Amino acid sequence: MKKAGATLRAGRPTTATARPTRPAANASDRSSVSARGKPRYVYRFGAGKADGRADMKQLLGGKGANLAEMTNLGVPVPPGLTITTEVCRLFYEAGHKWPAGLAQELEQGMRRLQEVAQKGFGDPANPLLVSVRSGAPVSMPGMMDTILNLGLNDRTVQGLITRTNNPRFAYDAYRRFIQMYGNVVLELPHHRFEERLAKQRASYKVQTDPELPAEALRELVEQYKHVVREAKGRAFPDDPQEQLAGAINAVFSSWHNERAVVYRRLNNISESLGTAVNVQAMVFGNMGPRSLTGVCFTRDPSTGERVFYGEYLVNAQGEDVVAGIRTPLPIAKLKEEFPPVYKELYAVGQQLERYFREMQDLEFTAEEGTLFLLQTRTGKRTARAAVTIAMDFVKDGVITREQALLRIDPLQLDQLLHPGIDPKAKPKVIAKGLPASPGAAVGRAVFEARRAVELAEEASEPVILVRQETSPEDIAGMAVSQGILTARGGMTSHAAVVARGMGKCCVAGCSDITVREDEREFRAGDVVVKEQDYITLNGTTGEVILGQAPLVQPELTASFRQLLAWADQTRRLGVRANADTPQDAKTARDFGAEGIGLCRTEHMFFAEERLPAVREMIVAKTTQARKTALAKLLPFQRQDFIDIFKVMEGLPVTIRLLDPPLHEFLPQDDEAIKRLAEQLGLGFRELKDIVHSLEEVNPMLGHRGCRLGLTYPEINEMQAQAIFEAACQLVKAKVRVQPEVMIPLVGHPQEFRIAKRTIEQVAQATFKRLGTSVKYLIGTMIEVPRAALVADAIAQEADFFSFGTNDLTQMTFGFSRDDIVKFLPHYLKERILPADPFVTLDQEGVGALITMGVHKGRNARKSLKVGICGEHGGEPSSVGFFHRAGLDYVSCSPYRVPIARLAAAQAVLREKKA
Amino acid sequence: MKKAGATLRAGRPTTATARPTRPAANASDRSSVSARGKPRYVYRFGAGKADGRADMKQLLGGKGANLAEMTNLGVPVPPGLTITTEVCRLFYEAGHKWPAGLAQELEQGMRRLQEVAQKGFGDPANPLLVSVRSGAPVSMPGMMDTILNLGLNDRTVQGLITRTNNPRFAYDAYRRFIQMYGNVVLELPHHRFEERLAKQRASYKVQTDPELPAEALRELVEQYKHVVREAKGRAFPDDPQEQLAGAINAVFSSWHNERAVVYRRLNNISESLGTAVNVQAMVFGNMGPRSLTGVCFTRDPSTGERVFYGEYLVNAQGEDVVAGIRTPLPIAKLKEEFPPVYKELYAVGQQLERYFREMQDLEFTAEEGTLFLLQTRTGKRTARAAVTIAMDFVKDGVITREQALLRIDPLQLDQLLHPGIDPKAKPKVIAKGLPASPGAAVGRAVFEARRAVELAEEASEPVILVRQETSPEDIAGMAVSQGILTARGGMTSHAAVVARGMGKCCVAGCSDITVREDEREFRAGDVVVKEQDYITLNGTTGEVILGQAPLVQPELTASFRQLLAWADQTRRLGVRANADTPQDAKTARDFGAEGIGLCRTEHMFFAEERLPAVREMIVAKTTQARKTALAKLLPFQRQDFIDIFKVMEGLPVTIRLLDPPLHEFLPQDDEAIKRLAEQLGLGFRELKDIVHSLEEVNPMLGHRGCRLGLTYPEINEMQAQAIFEAACQLVKAKVRVQPEVMIPLVGHPQEFRIAKRTIEQVAQATFKRLGTSVKYLIGTMIEVPRAALVADAIAQEADFFSFGTNDLTQMTFGFSRDDIVKFLPHYLKERILPADPFVTLDQEGVGALITMGVHKGRNARKSLKVGICGEHGGEPSSVGFFHRAGLDYVSCSPYRVPIARLAAAQAVLREKKA
What is the pLDDT of residue A10? Predict the structure, then answer.
């Protein structure tokens, strides 16, 4: 490559007002092939003309595609070129080598760049300096490497001094370049340079870098070069071509650096995308008092308000805005101080927003009063802002309602429904677990449910229950806690499911901590948290924080309600909630649930005043004794159902019969067994034998679900009686009720048949006794793989199916949700699984069983109602699957109902598109 | 109905030599409809002519059909009639009422019977007495009720006295009739009658009933009638018609008595079959010294030898032979004492055996020297006899080889391979569990594996290991025990599987006992068995016996080997064995296994000299430390494989990589943890935390299978290295080896892909290092439902599939095999499930996944080898399914190999037939 001798001045386009129409999407095939007929590797932009376009993000990365588009739009952009993501893939395939032809295309591109910029790369008189940046198809801010001021050496720095008449600026640019290049390309640790810088500050007796004079910086350049020579055994490369090649390689390599890999894993971004490399002429916000740099949003990213929002620093480089050493000025100040720059920036922002039909996040620099845009992209925003902006766009006719519905990430809505940690806080994170239930909570650590109740109710202290893992025995303690932290268990562990149902924050499966319940403490590395110490949980990120972090409260806006109303008009899927108490049911209705899809009766068994009767029932030695104990529970259960039916008046309520293994209701440690034995009038040894005999090796696959009600039909009888008595009582009081009795864990049609017979007999007897009757359905969970395989036979008996995708996932994979934390992190890290199947439905495996179940079920009974009540009912991609599978409704925890409503609407819209 | 006045003498046919040809099977439709065009309810037989035939068992029951056939064959049979099983069903449907027309048909039948018998029913001069007996389509010996001597009253008894000139005989018949009828029809308890009988003995100062004179019996008749009047408030019915109707009803009702219901459940007999009722003229073996009664077999039912075998009693009734008060005489004695009777009986036996082409079990009576056959049926026999008889029939050209193969129940072969309890012993059964591994064992109870080893090895005592449940830690203890008894766990629990593999007797899931390991005792009701007390187990029946029962040893006959050779020529399925040690492998080859289908490597990890290294590996905190520990295990594993490969030379050996969760290798109680901590140089608390952290809520669904080798690839590496080093070493020594590496618990193709890559890398490295190579396969278990659902994707990578039907059954049903004992007995009792799915493959559910897996797998890879290595591989009906599903082989425990060979042959023959 030759050095270009031309000395043109800037890359500003001459026709900034021209606004080209958006190019046709199918034009991209043509332009991705070079004139030689081979795939094109280098795309140029500058002087109002670019090879690429915005819809070429896959090939040019987001940054490159948008720089091209902006150039075409007439927005002032420093000229440059983009090396495609395709090159990145070839680079890796060839073992970190450039594909044939790249060098030549790059040389041509650089020649054109020099022409447009009217500067010469390596030209000592009028040097072209460039930035070399990554730009992936999906935004990965700060994850990969960037090098600025490339092209400087001992000769070109002199040109820069001459042209800017600012030696301090020039040497500062030079020493920054060496430092950045040394670190990124030559892989020298930062501190090697920082030590020299600190020494220099000391010798010059100044506090901050900006106070260092030009001379000090010039010396620093020499010292830095010495550092490099010493460490690498050779001189810092002063050939700009060599610098450029090294920087390009470093950016490609950074695609696989650890933080980028982690970021992609966390954000579910494919490894195979690759990154593009953008080489762009430098412009300087730090060239003097008429230079500045900043970032701005076309709307307020926190609230969505239609205000021009941002901040800038005079005489500074972009990194200074981020570093936070100097406090940036609000954008309103720009209007006062640099009115032409502000005016042009504002106009460009509006133009880009209109053009992309999205709120924009802009990076800009004014060099000596001349504005340049360095980047534009869709701005990240809070959920609240996302909703407001979408609504405003609809109001202004920029996008349609359908586009607005598609534009909101349903998962983000969670933010609107839960408190969060103040983003301005700098909390001390001591551990990280699974983000099992969103929101944030502050409280005193307690290690026992009973202690949680004492502290919360008697001392009115906010508490956080910390357990190895929770069990149904802990319900009371969970109910009074602000949040729950467990060391074990996955996204659908007991703690996670119950917490989500309660709308309570939960961090589960936090293997970073060791919980010692007996010593009332937990350890996270060196930190020991004792009972009553304050901690804060972030259930949205999974972070565990020492002390009390400041919280911000959620807010439900009118825009939000409007959006959901539109969603309701669009969707086909019904949305119900999983709710076990009248309070849950109330929350569910408030969030728009159209019924209860899962009311778990076991949670009702744990209330303090009922547990003795439950235990009496369990240890009963005869059917008669069991019936006597159950008779004590009947009034409680009946009242539960009366209260829930009332709240849900006119809507269906699906009640699941008792599901968990009985040992969950009995104490495990000798002390508690001793106490209970006294209460029940049994010998300690006798009760211990009973407890022992109820233990199971794999309780998830044990004596639970319909197996309980089949071996002890009197349990089903009592529950059915409570349901029908409650329903009849309300019908007499003119309250409309729609009970749906659901039999859990059915795998064989005969299980269903026998349980159904019992329920029907109780219903008929109750109706006769009370002199009224109620319409009801009897259906089953489909949660055992076998049930899906023989769904036709089951549907001959059942009025409805409700897929229990938690258990179905457990058994289809053979994964215990309580133990998955042992290997799931590794599985996700190594991409053995694409996602946690307890969060995102496994459509290929579990989904195949669901599709089969729906198909076979409906074949056998046309009128079969089919829903799903696992945790996946509130996960957007899974909701999309359920829509396509033809389900009638999804049911999820009350706080997920808005998410499901939106996701169900999106499913319809996506189907239309396809 | 009128009383018949005729006084004919006997039902002997006039043409006893005529031998009709076997009737065509399709003739049954015609004859099952009466002349009136309605279904016929009553079938008559007598005087050489019968309405029914042998192939009408469904309608007439086994007894009725054979009585009809015998009559037609000219065999001397007392005349009678059979009321069909159809009537039994109608009787229940109508709420214990007779269908219209039955009374009339019965009257006609009784009229004909009186004509043939030449006696009158209720005729005081020449009374016809009848027996009323049940007769189901399937033999249910002794399960239902029988009434003899019906037709007696105060008048007819006088006729009997006159005709026999034997008042003692007549009154004895009369009092027996009242007692039997009172008990069966009137439902009075036996003791009410027995008390009177005892008093009468006392007054007459005699010891036994036969010593009572006629007068005493006459008095007893009056006393019995008094008993009835007092208890029922009305007189004993003296109208023979009323007696007959009552008896018929009682027999129908006995179809649903408790013991019959239990018997059908145990023997898998349908409830809907119903029983027929046979009304037959009485003949008396107790009419005097020329009368006799007995039972005989046409061959020896124990050995199968071609000898006429049986016993008889002179002047006795059939029940006396069974009661065992008098000692019967061997049939040889009959030849000496009653040559004409013997000759005729022998001829009839031969005739029937030839006719039915089966060894016959005959009941006979000679009344005053005249022979009558009361029943003939296929004789029950031991496995040894069954094989010998079938072989002899083939030799004699009576049946074909194919018929012989189909005639042997494969399950019965188990008897030939294990010791049993001497059938003559009367053991004290104290509890009953699941018959988990066949055979019998005697030993001293021990409650800890370590104690088992001490007693067995140091004191050379036979021991039986009694545990709540066993875990892999108990292996050493199990190995030295004669048998294993557990209180929990099903047919495929750890104890059951390991015991079967070892060919050791096991009773599992014995919920009748309470095991207190800490107190070294178990309780069964009131019986307390302490350490070192002798017990005996019967693993074939599930019985637990107090003390030392006498055992008999098995014997392998030439006939048996011949039968299996024929089976091998017939079958298509390959038969392999599950074997973990060279000894197992040797047994497997001896029993005809064609390879090892499952070699579980974990059992190798428990050996005493290896466990420390295994534990070191588990507690290792770094990959390096883990590798160091694994390196210590490598030589052991390599030697294991060398030894097994040698035994299996030339045959494939499928080695499964480590499968069980790691916590199984660590101690659980504080004492043992303390000891281990010292050994490993760790703190007690530290090790306890590690043990704690490895615990799982549902270990069956936890960190096991390929999940282990994926999270710790160094484990897979070590195992692969051991396999390939062993194989290379043998190849160099000219030993042919066929290793097949099997990856367990794969659910996602990516799991397989990654594990396979590791194994291939190790293989290549090993081959290169050792300068040789070995052909090998890498395949996977299909044991997680998801694997079957995505079998096409997995087959793209895998060389073979092996269905792990134990785990597949667990996950498809959601049944933990260790916990199923809590509800399975109830499920089987209530017929919710037709069979234990861990014993008999659930073809409908689990089978659907297998069919899908085979289909998808072969679609993706034509050459895919498909087998099964769950416990079902040795269960005949499951083997039939695997044959039909197109599998290449089954693999089962060595002792089941002969069963699988025969079952596989039968599958081919049944397919041909269909």
Answer: 40
Q: Which of B707, B751, B842 is best to mutate for the A interface (most A CBs within 10 A)?
A: B707
CA distance A104 to chain B (A): 39
- Hey, of B271, B815, B850, B851, which one would you mutate to test binding to chain A, going by the most A CBs within 10 A of its CB? B815
Please name the residue that has the structure tokens 């750890």: B494
Q: Return the closest-CA partner of residue B353 out of B396, B314, B312.
A: B396
In chain A, which residues have pLDDT < 50? 1-11, 13-31
Residue by residue, DSSP assigns B189-252 as -HHHHHHHHHHHHHHTT-SSGGGS-HHHHHHHHHHHHHHHHHHHSSPPP--HHHHHHHHHHHHH
SS3 B39: strand
pLDDT of residue B322: 60
pLDDT for the residue B3: 39
Write down the pLDDT at residue B803: 98
Give CA angle at A744 (A743, A746), nearest 5°: 90
Please say whether the beta carbons of A113 and A45 come within 8 A. no
Task: Return the pLDDT at B120.
Answer: 96
Token pair recorded at residue B79: 């005349």
**pLDDT at residue A409, rounded to an integer:** 92
Pairing of strands A800-803, A865-868: parallel
The Cα of A197 is separated from the nearest Cα of chain B by a number of Å equal to: 38
Rounded-to-integer distance, Cα B807 and Cα B150, Å: 58
Q: Which of B268, B828, B434 is nearest to A711 (CA)?
A: B828
Q: Among the listed ranges A323-332, A761-770, B15-24, B618-627, which one has the minimum average pLDDT value?
A: B15-24
Of the residues A88, A296, A418, A494, only one is catalytic, namely A494
**Per-residue pLDDT, B8:** 36
Whole-Å CA distances, B762 to B628, B723, B765, B767, B770: 17, 10, 5, 8, 12
Instruction: State pLDDT tens for residues B566-583.
Output: 999 999 999 999 999 998
Q: What stretch of H or E contains A589?
A: helix A582-590
Q: Are B667 and B673 in contact (CB under 8 A)?
A: yes
Q: Measuring CA to CA, which residue among B785, B783, B813, B789 is closest to residue B801?
A: B783
Radius of gyration of chain A (CA): 33
- ipTM for this model: 0.79
Tokens of A86: 């395709």
3-state secondary structure of A865: strand
CA B834 from centre of chain: 15
pLDDT digits (tens, 9 = 90+) for A655-712: 999 999 998 888 888 888 999 999 888 999 889 888 888 889 899 999 999 999 999 9
Residue B33: per-residue pLDDT? 52
Q: Is A495 on the interface with B (CB under 8 A)?
A: no
List, as one string, the DSSP characters of A465-482: EEESS--GGGHHHHHH-S
Residues in B closer than 8 angstroms to A826, CB to CB, are: 710-711
Q: Which residue in chain A is spatially nearest to B685 when comparing CA positions?
A: A516
For A35, A485, B691, the CA distances from B688, given in Å and listed in that order, are 69, 22, 5
CA distance B525 to B514: 9
In angstroms, what separates the C-alpha of B809 from chain A's closest C-alpha?
Answer: 9
For A:157-176, CB contacts with B below 8 A are none
Please confirm, yes or no, whether A494 is among the known catalytic residues: yes
- B58 pLDDT band, cuts 50/70/90, is very high
> Which residues of A are less than 8 Å from B784 in CB distance?
812-814
Beta-bridge partners for B866: B801
Chain-chain contact of A784 with B813 (C-beta, under 8 angstroms): yes
CA dist., res. A821 & res. A509, Å (int): 6
Once rounded to an integer, what is the mean pLDDT over residues B585-599? 95
